[in-house]
User: Which sequence fits this backbone?
């Protein structure tokens, strides 16, 4: 038996933030990040809509990008003190993911972070609060997914929490919020979204309910991402919807090793001055993983179907896979994203020698590969890599060399 779960309600279209006026409850806590929602006036609007709905409102502000376990614990304490019956998470993937984890700890104050990370092991929520997610970036789709990514900075590792219990009750997909995104954020979150759709389509857990969502998302992203990046503002709305469709697909079909590798490389070089931003990591690793996975006959056929759906041409599946890889690499060029870790600068832009020194990468490689194999996203990848294969694949992602194994 398989399960397909989405939020019960999804409000979409320009101005759909107003849906908050119709919420029923007594107390709402709004969880936000570092200030963009406040700066652009969306936070004030949300507060006034909830007050119009008769609710008492409290803010939990300052959730950092790639939120930490400590932030989750702090937010949960604020919830325990205030006792909200609505948790409203607003912003990019970071504040929404953090709020999802806070929600678990709020409902079960004794639960440990390790217990939360047990895949599909979260006890029933919604005894204290319901959850609404309002996304302001066009990528993670966490407003509709069963996932939350929390970083343990002591270990330098991102842990996915995965359970349909944390699929929000309500998602608001209002493109007004995405219009304020700077170009770099559009690029990174957009490549995250296409990675979600492609990994979901070839995942071993794909099904008839997820395939159409994934394919349509891929086509919409093909049409809108580069234009949206180049500040054609009419493309922000289709990108915002497309990333959400990709999220509906991968929340139910799961992901693959592009994400396993991105999770395990994201924060592991932080002591060298930067993170490899999630979407940029995906953008660099995706073409390599396609070449690796295409050695599996079923995956190759499905990549061919994606290429056909995108209208890329090619006389057979080998050619189609090659054209798909070329297309994605060209997208990276158009979006000013490097092709490999070696060329990934601390500012995320391509450069001759990036912030991760070669010897540091090689020294940490066995551990990173081991952690990537153990990531929750590896299980649904079409090909299960050995330790040796994962190390070779990561090396191709460092040096931008051909994957021929
Ligand atoms: N839960 C999931 O299913 C899922 C999926 C993929 C990624 N993730 C996680 O999500 C996180 C990344 O989220 P993200 O890419 O959305 O970015 P983010 O939430 O980390 O935000 C990045 C920066 O953009 C700013 N920002 C956000 N929206 C803005 C807007 N509209 N205008 C201007 N600035 C804005 C934020 O203030 C922040 O400084 C990572 O931790 C990643 O691992 C989660
Ligand atoms: Zn992602």
Assistant:
């Amino acid at each position: 038996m398989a399960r397909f779960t989405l939020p019960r309600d999804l409000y979409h279209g320009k101005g759909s933030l107003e849906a908050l006026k119709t919420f029923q409850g007594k107390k709402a806590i709004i969880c936000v990040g570092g200030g963009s929602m406040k700066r652009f006036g969306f936070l004030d609007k949300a507060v006034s809509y909830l007050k119009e709905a008769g609710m008492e409102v409290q803010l939990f502000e300052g959730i950092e990008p790639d939120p930490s376990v400590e932030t989750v614990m702090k937010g949960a304490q604020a919830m325990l003190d205030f006792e909200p019956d609505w948790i409203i998470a607003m912003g990019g993937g970071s504040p929404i993911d953090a709020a999802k984890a806070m929600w678990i700890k709020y409902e079960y104050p004794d639960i440990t972070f390790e217990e939360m990370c047990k895949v599909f092991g979260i006890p029933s929520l919604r005894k204290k609060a319901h959850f609404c997610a309002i996304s302001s970036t066009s990528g993670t789709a966490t407003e509709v997914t069963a996932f939350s990514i929390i970083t343990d900075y002591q270990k330098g590792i991102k842990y996915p929490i995965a359970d349909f219990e944390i699929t929000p009750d309500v998602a608001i997909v209002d493109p007004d919020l995405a219009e304020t995104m700077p170009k770099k954020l559009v690029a990174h979150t957009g490549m995250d979204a296409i990675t979600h759709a492609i990994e979901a389509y070839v995942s071993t857990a794909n099904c008839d309910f997820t395939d159409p969502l994934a394919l349509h998302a891929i086509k919409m992203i093909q049409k809108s991402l580069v234009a949206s990046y180049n500040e054609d503002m009419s493309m922000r709305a289709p990108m915002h919807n497309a990333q959400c469709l990709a999220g509906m697909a991968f929340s139910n079909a799961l992901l693959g090793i592009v994400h396993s590798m991105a999770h395990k490389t994201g924060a592991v070089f932080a002591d060298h001055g930067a993170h490899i931003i999630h979407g940029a990591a995906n953008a660099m690793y995706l073409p390599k993983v396609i070449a690796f996975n295409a050695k599996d006959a079923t995956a190759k056929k499905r990549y061919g179907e994606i290429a056909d759906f995108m209208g890329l041409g090619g006389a057979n599946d080998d050619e189609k896979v090659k054209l798909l890889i070329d297309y994605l690499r060209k997208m990276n060029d158009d979006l000013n994203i490097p092709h490999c870790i070696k060329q990934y600068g601390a500012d995320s832009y391509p450069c001759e020698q990036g912030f991760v020194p070669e010897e540091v990468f090689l020294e940490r490689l066995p551990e990173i590969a081991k952690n990537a194999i153990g990531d929750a996203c590896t299980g649904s990848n079409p090909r299960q890599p050995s330790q040796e294969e994962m190390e070779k694949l990561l090396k191709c992602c460092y040096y931008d060399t051909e994957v021929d194994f």
About this structure: The two ends are 34 Å apart (CA to CA). DSSP finds 15 helices and eight strands in the chain.
